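Could someone model GLP with this protein?
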Amino acid sequence: MIQIEKVKDYSALSKKAAMFIAAEIVQRKLPVLGLATGSTPIGTYKVLRELYQEGRLDFSSVRSVNLDEYRGLSPEDSHSYRYFMNEELFNHVNIKISNTHVPDGTLKEAKEACESYEELIQSLGGIHLQILGLGHDGHIGFNEPSNHFPAKTHCVKLTEETINANQRFFAKKEDVPTEAYTMGIGTIMHAEKILLLVSGKDKASILQKVLEGPVTPDVPASILQFHPNVILIADEEALSLC
Ligand code: GLP
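Reply:
Sure, complex below.
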């Protein structure tokens, strides 16, 4: 079931999402957060940093697992998702870096990289709250449209659309990696709760498909209709076609 929380704009979305995550951290003894990259959660991470700086939130017991990482990029590469997480959140709060996990893009053996990440998530006892953004083609993590829902962490070839969309973070298109490691749809669906964040007019048509269309691997995020506990925080523009 997807519970819809409609907010006015991106700033309201960021505040609401951060308060939701903060409540999860406070209520759990050893919270396991599934974290996402992309531009959508940047405002949320900023509010979380502020809550920490004001002494209102303690990250010392938080463990985190990120959804995905570009294959071939090292943690020091400023385009890697590990670098993004350090910059946007981890370096500014009292989370223990050893408790934060992002798939290792430098591991050459894809099978091994994916299996070990899946085992790691199991060893943490699963994900309590998974944060998700939404790709323009309906992808979550890097689970691109396909003919099936991948169960576990795997290596994907990025679609032309995703490469184009993510090009804005790189100097030129040729620099965008063509492959990534990502949690599977099954990994994501096993999370106890999911917080889906969607903002802007350009996401309105895909969000309509996710919420109102058939559940199909052609729109990977549509599977969220079958999850028992999804909260969608979306702004007016993103919900303008629903
Ligand atoms: C990337 C990430 C996704 C993210 C998506 C949307 O491809 N792998 O996890 O949700 O982009 O990004 P944005 O929030 O910038 O629109």
